[in-house]
Fold:
Amino acid sequence: MAPPSQHCFNAINGATNNNGAVPAVMVDTSQQKLPCPTLLDADEFRRQGHQVIDFIADYYSRMGDYPVHPSVTPGFLPSQLPDAAPSRPEPDAFGSALRDVRDLILPGITHWQSPRHFAHFPASSSTVGALGEALTAGINVIPFTWTASPAATELEMVVVDWLGKALHLPESLLFAGGGGGALLGTSCEAILCALVAARDRKLAEIGGKKIVDLVVYCSDQTHFAFRKAARIAGIQRDQCREIRTCHANMFALSPTELRAAMQADVDAGLMPLFLCATVGTTQTTAVDPIGELCAVAAPHGVWVHVDAAYAGSALVCPEFRHVIDGVESVDSFSMNAHKWLLANNDCCAMWFKKPCALIAALGTEQEYILRDPAASDVVDYKDWTLTLTRRFRALKVWLVLRCYGVDGLRDHVRSHVRMAEAFENMVKADGRFEVVTDRRFALVCFRLRPQEEFGGEKTANELNRSLLEEVNAVSSGPYMSSANVGGMHVLRCAVGSTLTEERHVEDAWKVVQDRASAILHRMEIVYSVLG
Amino acid sequence: MAPPSQHCFNAINGATNNNGAVPAVMVDTSQQKLPCPTLLDADEFRRQGHQVIDFIADYYSRMGDYPVHPSVTPGFLPSQLPDAAPSRPEPDAFGSALRDVRDLILPGITHWQSPRHFAHFPASSSTVGALGEALTAGINVIPFTWTASPAATELEMVVVDWLGKALHLPESLLFAGGGGGALLGTSCEAILCALVAARDRKLAEIGGKKIVDLVVYCSDQTHFAFRKAARIAGIQRDQCREIRTCHANMFALSPTELRAAMQADVDAGLMPLFLCATVGTTQTTAVDPIGELCAVAAPHGVWVHVDAAYAGSALVCPEFRHVIDGVESVDSFSMNAHKWLLANNDCCAMWFKKPCALIAALGTEQEYILRDPAASDVVDYKDWTLTLTRRFRALKVWLVLRCYGVDGLRDHVRSHVRMAEAFENMVKADGRFEVVTDRRFALVCFRLRPQEEFGGEKTANELNRSLLEEVNAVSSGPYMSSANVGGMHVLRCAVGSTLTEERHVEDAWKVVQDRASAILHRMEIVYSVLG
Structure:
């Protein structure tokens, strides 16, 4: 299927068909100096703003027509652009730039909002989420302290409590219960914040030089974000223990294994510092048993953080609350509302039981930061996160919660879970396939069963690698990703795009079946020739 | 001056005057379940999107009417909001939410876009910058690898080179010259990236346990972001050397002092690792002499990073190029395009001479990250920054460069420099005041001279503290911040809001003069009574 023609973008006034030639972009055609454009003029903003809104709306309405993943080769874009920015804008530079977004950029992106995007985890979009971002960018405040924008700070405090309640988090993690939270970009940052808070709390007791003795724990399924955070925080590279998981235990972190690992480190004179438990791992949405892990960690004074980047959104449904049983004992918790809760990228929420540990690690004080004399006991979010400059993300989250309501978010999550369940059932109904791990949320991990006549388990991974490649090569087909667990190469079908409907899931399965048939047929021929 | 009445926001259809009462917000009035709203419907997006555009345009057109800083006390907002998110959206929830943004949020924020905002450094807004953010949020891709959105990665590579050229950076920092760069949120992140790259390069030579021997350097004027980064990266807290600066040297870092500090550390068995030099310090826009500092750092193999968060934007003008003389020798460089280059918050650009050191520190590899077999030698930006999830900021920067042109950005910077110069001249023309440090860019640091008859230098700081408080308390007046340098409390007038015109600068000065006259008059009375 070809990408939608440029005619469909009614938004771009004066668009002309350039017959497929490389658009004449960014050529400075004016010889004389153009009048300097008005940089923040209300009327100009209105005119161009309506163009942008129509452009995006047109994009949404044609989303299904794009191949999810573009057929481009590295370097395709620079070769079509000049080497340097123009000195002066061309006439109608904005309209011309929008045409280039349509003709050069959109054909070269991976369409994460496509209803056929089943790769990775979703980048959840909504009308209100996108417009919340637009509003934030328009207002453009920098709420690094309370004084720097009081309403922005206070709205953030309100919405992290609202969100925590909606996700059934314990009150001890909320401002309302003596804890508190913040919004930031990604789980990578949240995990690093928690780790640095834990590290500095420990080092304050034992002395800074002991940093080299600290050990951190995770499973071999934990997202690389944690190992990256541990590196950044200066934990010795060989003191990040990745506890092995197994298929029999559905790739969850074993408390028994964790206990043994911690004891071994203590025996070796090292100091257990931090455990990153995951609710909904990236590969298979495995769920680490939080309560039991906390019980293992407690005697060592280990900080427990829960990374629920993806599955945290599912907690909006009471039927999923059990996956965080024992969460009352954790020190910190984070999830990405941009993954599955309609709050466009980026939007991570994190909560701490004792924010004072965080502030002790990340707090700053300097004369040039204005303070309101009447506001001495306020939250200054610069002391809660890695950065001083930050965005007013609370506005977006507030709009999403308010305009969709907690029930609306539940409906949204449940619709994806239902569709994933339908996909799972289709996989199960085809004897050539197997569902590799129990589906918990809206991700199905599956593969072609090892084919005894074609080498069995020995060729299974190659077979499934080919299958994924062929599925993703169908331009009107679904786009999926893979996992490697327990030595198996498996396909991941993550339902979660806001635009995905049942028919897209059914179509996706048909493409998988079709490609599998073709591959198995080819195998038959090869094996019959080889004898 | 009162904030603008709600009547001025024509954007909000059906807005009614609620006579100043607390708006009836977020009350779930529906007893029966409302139909689930369409979450990403093109028509709904169009309808609500146009409302948002008009809302923002109305806000811009009334910006000058708001007091820059709100008169609110901590807790004002939560007291007006429910304790939890609504279960179901109220009818016309979006319109109702926009009314609350107008009536509850806007009166409680600090209006960074006000033409009378002279505090901190600017949060530079433009029509194109804001709409670039809107477009990014609408398209909502996550370009963490090339494959995850090829055009997003390639456009980022293009624009960091475009921007680097526009700022007269040496080719060795650009992709075109074997270096390369990335866009991220803030300078805090850029500095941390550079520090971690430097640290891990060093530790790879000397062994990870030596982390406790590493020492980092800055001046007492360096932004706290650097000390925060050093803490996060696990540098011992007492091994961050803040070299003292002095007024005679305009608060620039002295190469002689740096040399002595490094030698002292080497003599003590420690290892100099990293220097953070600043071009345009936060307090007074001091400029550290990069070339000379690099010469001091080189024999120790110290990584030199230049933080040009604010003044980096000025480099678009050739007349400022000299402030980075010697930059060819640095290892990395960063600036915030959201501060003064019309690319709305957030947008930091960083460049590295040897990106391989960065990738060695921050690179990740995991099976579930999809790769295009045909794209083995591409930039995967997840390996360049702290986080894996990231935003498509390149679109905004590309639009800004293209729609305003390098000449347009120069005009923009120069207009602020001219206005700051005008303010400086007004200060100099009033004998009661003094300009404390040479103005280099668009920040004027000034104070009321010590008044001999009222205690001289002993009372000068108190006098100027009162002056700032009184100036900022004038609701139709300017909003400024302060610095504390060389024992002096000084006022900072940072010209940089996109909407600021000459008249706003003149009016600001009149308010300062007026408040100064009133304070000095009160002092006269007090001193005459006291004899």
